[in-house]
Amino acid sequence: MISKILTSLPALCFALAMHGQSNIQGVVSGMEDNESTPLPGASVYWVNQSGGTTTDESGRFTLSAPANLPERLVVSYVGFQNDTILVHDVGQSITVTLSAAVTLREAEVVSRQKAVSMSTMETVNTVHLSREHLQKAACCNLSESFETDASIDVVENDAVAGTRKILMLGLDGTYSQILFEGIPLIRGLQSTYGLTYIPGTWIESIQVSKGAGSVVNGFESMTGQINLEYWKPENHDQGRAFFNAYANHMGRLEGNGYLRQKINDKWSTMLLAHGRTSLMRINNNDNGFMDMPMDNEIQVLNRWKYQSTRRESVFGVRFLTDDKFGGQVQFDPRTNRLDQPWYGMQVRTRLISGFGKSGFLFPETPWKSIGLQASATYHEQDAFFGLRDYQAAHTSAYFNGIYQTMIGTTDHVVKGGVSFRGDDYRESFTDSTFNRTEIIPGAFAEYAWTHNEKFSLVAGLRADFHNLFGTIVSPRLHTKYNLGPLSVLRFSGGRGFRSPVLFAENISPLVSSRQVTVVETPRAEVSWNTGVSFLQKFTLAGMEGHVNIDYFYTFFENQLIIDMDESARQLIFYNLDGQSYSHAVQVDFLIEPVERFEVKLAYKHYEVKTTYRSQGLIDRPFVPQDRALINLAYNTRHDIWKFDITTNWFGSARIPSTAENPVEHQRRTSSPSFFMLSGQITRTFKFGEIYLGGENLNNFRQPNPIIDPQNPFGDIFDASMIWGPIAGAIVYIGFRTTF
User: Fold this and answer.
1) What is the largest CA-CA distance in the chain?
2) Coil/strand/helix, residue 516
3) With contact defined as beta carbons under 8 Å apart, do 581 and 553 qualify?
4) Does the N-terminal peptide bond of residue 485 adopt cis geometry, omega within 30 degrees of 0?
5) Could you tell me which residues come within 8 angstroms of residue 94 by beta carbon, excluding any fewer than 6 positions away?
6) What is the DSSP code (8-state) at residue 701?
């Protein structure tokens, strides 16, 4: 059934896209001393939606319109009074002139930061990361895009396969929903390397929200949402083409960019391309193993836009091929597959996906709208780890239909709709197969209430009918109260669930000699999340900044347990029998003490505990209980020079016991705390920018990351006990230009 759905979905994506998702275009200027000038870098985003953007050098912007209009659009800029516009129609011409003031207007006060912004008007606590933030570091891929911000933790996962993962609220990134312009993106089989398959230069902006997300976007947002906004084909004023080249001293080369083409007044298209390769086998740890896998990746995305007076269309297709191999320095994947004497791993990935979005507007009743989304993906992996063979294929189909209207006034907005998700998994590991087909139709309703511009509420309920797990109901609630023009208090709560994928989401422990045991069939992972946050903006002696404090509590009704504690010789999968929860506290402080100099401080504390059948309730392994960040950024006038330096501190984390190993192969039960220093200098020229930077400049490395590397086919070998960086310091240089 899934194959039939997948076959028909590309045509459906195209058909939906031909009705289009609308874009809003406009220009932002600033009025100062009776003179109006364009404002480049102004923040533009929707009050109750996840999308956002910034203006270009001419003050112009293009922003994806929500499927449901009318909606309020917020515009803000450093040192200027913020403004809010009610957008009724995609054809509406938007010209915004901000006044040089710091007073409250329409009770709208929005963070004026260009790189990172937080709003006092959005019901959901959302951090907006613009292209200025993404260019603070090389940001070659999505996993590297959060290293200068504290919202997301990025950690290495093993010492051979080169996998990385993110943590949100102290929990694995699989519990966070990652969206591409509102459509679910990284899930299922893509969990293995999906973060590294999103080139950073393709991303225009990122919106990060903590806690259970909107029911409109689905059921999988358990700890938060990450929405990615890519560059758009119609934004010709941002440059027709872009190119970026990157190289580091360890032989990693990357090239990526995009090309826009206006076909005529209605049609425009965009081609985004990315390539990556590795030239050197690095073994700085002197253990006989490559510190990072060799890699050859090619990826292409073609997206189209159709625009007329009453109709807009967005659709596209993406292709990816990637070959990775790692292991001992002498390993050759052409001759040593599943064979001795050299230990190695190889993962060959092929992926094709398509998407389409559509919005139907009613000019006579602009408060009504219908939105449609659809996507389809086929993803396969051909892999092995030492003598272990792993084959997987994932076929998925997705559809979401949304209807919006108001009750009386736009202060009362109602959304309702239906969704469908189909997943067909084919996994085989050594001599066992783990196949399943999931069919998940669903329905949802959401009510949004705004009262006196101070209080807002979004309450939602969805029911999903899973063919394997039965009916699962997910209520969600978000509230916001403005204590003052610069102070806001938020609360959120909700339930979510997901279907775990045994091996694709847990590749790193496979790079070991542990015996794999699946005790029982995994059930749906179900959790509740509640949170409260307080945001205070301020202007002190001419210095602008903010303080944000948030606390989130997540507990699981059921969870797939990956047990590395019962035995250093085993990896055991079973369903939760007991408690599993996370307490997460974060404090952020941001200030601009002088013009163009930004200081950002952050501290996080986690208490993440899980019940293991042999150990009881203990700390989840490899999760630092504390983390701190200091980021300093300075730009000279006209951004000729840009300087950025970031220090990350990681506290201690629990390590699974290795007491049954011989003494020489035992490891400590907790990791030490450590620092990592990174920085970048950028010089702007007329022809583009040259950037020089480094990661882990203090050259901290986890000592002896691999257990028994001299005997990789023995019973003790384990490359999955990773709590710190493996490769040491990395120095890079790059060039980017827009023309």
Assistant:
1) 78
2) strand
3) yes
4) no
5) 24, 25, 26, 27, 73, 85, 87
6) -
Average pLDDT over residues 51-71: 75
Residue 737 tokens read as 């230009």
Assign domain 2-16+127-738 one CATH number from 3.40.109.10, 3.40.50.11740, 2.60.40.2080, 2.40.170.20: 2.40.170.20
How much of the chain is in helix, strand and coil states, percent to nearest 5? 5, 55, 35
For the stretch 145-161, pLDDT in tens is 888 888 899 888 888 88
Residue 664 exposed, middle or buried by CB count within 10 Å (0-12, 13-18, 19+):
exposed
Catalogue the long-range contacts made by 105-110 (C-beta closer than 8 Å, 24 or more residues apart): 105/81, 106/453, 107/453, 107/454, 107/482, 107/485, 108/74, 108/82, 108/83, 108/84, 108/453, 109/82, 109/485, 109/486, 109/537, 110/43, 110/74, 110/76, 110/82
Q: How many alpha carbons lie under 13 Å from residue 34 in its C-beta half-sphere?
A: 0
Alpha carbon distance 13, 234 (integer Å): 19
Distance of alpha carbon 218 from alpha carbon 396, whole angstroms: 15
Q: Is 245 exposed, middle or buried (0-12, 13-18, 19+ CB in 10 A)?
A: middle
The two tokens of residue 645 are 């330096």
User: Among residues 80, 109, 78, 177, which one has the least CA distance to residue 480?
Assistant: 109
What is the rounded distance in angstroms from the CA atom of residue 539 to the CA atom of residue 174? 38
Q: Which residues contact 335 (CB under 8 A, 6 or more apart)?
A: none
Q: CB–CB of 234/305 below 8 Å? A: yes
Amino acid at 176: S
Q: How many residues does the chain have?
A: 739
Task: Tell me the torsion sign for CA atoms 201, 205, 211, 216.
Answer: negative
DSSP type of residue 707: B
Using CA atoms, how far apart are residues 228 and 143, in angstroms rounded to an integer? 13
Helices and strands in the chain: count of H runs, count of E runs: 2, 43
The pLDDT of residue 476 is above 90:
yes
The token duo for 565 is 């504690």
Over its C-alpha atoms, the chain yields an Rg (Å, rounded) of 25
Question: For residue 548, which of 501, 503, 487 has the smallest C-alpha distance?
Answer: 487
Per-residue CA distances from 668 to 296, 510, 612, 653 (Å): 36, 21, 20, 11
What is the average pLDDT across 73-83?
73
d(CA 165, CA 171) in angstroms, rounded, equals 10
Q: Which amino acid is at 235?
A: N
> Could you tell me the two tokens for 718?
């384990």
Q: Is 326 helix (H, G, I), strand (E, B) or coil?
A: strand
Mean pLDDT to the nearest integer, 591-618: 95
Q: Give yes or no for a contact between 564 and 621, defined as CB atoms under 8 angstroms apart.
A: yes
Which residues share a beta bridge with 447?
414, 459
Query: What tokens were used for 712?
Result: 């990789």
Supply the pTM of this predicted model. Answer: 0.85
User: Tokens 């390993």 appear where?
Assistant: 331
User: Tokens in use for 449?
Assistant: 């209430």
State yes or no: pLDDT of 108 exceeds 50: no
- Picking from 246, 229, 236, the residue whose alpha carbon sits closest to that of residue 267 is 236
Q: What is the DSSP string of 533-583?
A: EEEEEEEETTEEEEEEEEEEEEEEEE-EEEE-SS-TTEEEEEE--S-EEEE
What is d(CA 261, CA 268) in angstroms, rounded to the nearest whole number?
6
Residue 269, beta-bridge partner list? 261, 304
Domain boundaries in the chain?
2-16+127-738
Burial class (CB in 10 A: 0-12, 13-18, 19+), 68: buried
Strand order through the sheet with 126-129:
116-118, 126-129, 203-210, 224-230, 176-180, 183-186
